[in-house]
Design a protein that fits this description.
Helix content is about 85%, strand content about 0%. It is built from 5 helices and no strands. α2 runs antiparallel to α3 and α2 packs across α4. The protein starts with a helix and ends with a helix.
Length: about 130
């Protein structure tokens, strides 16, 4: 139960950190480009790599701490870091086709799914509106 509470707390803090950091960057850099989430995603990749290295390469963090930090905090801070981590694993294993499908697929299919979801919401609004 304690592990689950720590996971929930880390998830909540990760979401708050993403919102706060992204808003801070967006407030500092006035631009049509989404610098807030861009910088947040890059920072998330750096933090993910740091935590992974500390836990799995240098064995400075235990498995439970790794899960709480990577899945809880980092999962809420940015799922982009996990996407990049998975893509890097495909790169390192020289799985070129899988890498291309993962990167292009998630971006292109993700945009298409977003568009489909936006259209679907119109159907829901008409049904309930």
């Amino acid at each position: 139960m304690r592990h689950l509470l720590l996971f929930a707390l880390a998830s909540a803090l990760g979401g708050l950190a993403r919102y706060g950091f992204s808003a801070l960057v967006s407030g500092l850099v006035k631009s049509a480009f989404p610098w807030g989430i861009f910088v947040t995603n890059v920072l998330g990749c750096f933090l993910f790599g740091t935590i992974w290295g500390m836990a799995c390469v240098h064995r400075l963090l235990g498995d439970a701490t790794r899960v709480v930090l990577l899945t809880g905090f980092m999962g809420s801070f940015t799922t982009f870091s996990t996407f990049v981590f998975d893509s890097n694993a495909l790169l390192e294993s020289r799985a070129w086709l899988a890498l291309a499908l993962n990167v292009a697929g998630q971006v292109i299919v993700g945009i298409l799914a977003l568009q489909l979801g936006m259209r679907f919401s119109g159907l829901i609004a008409r049904f309930f509106g």
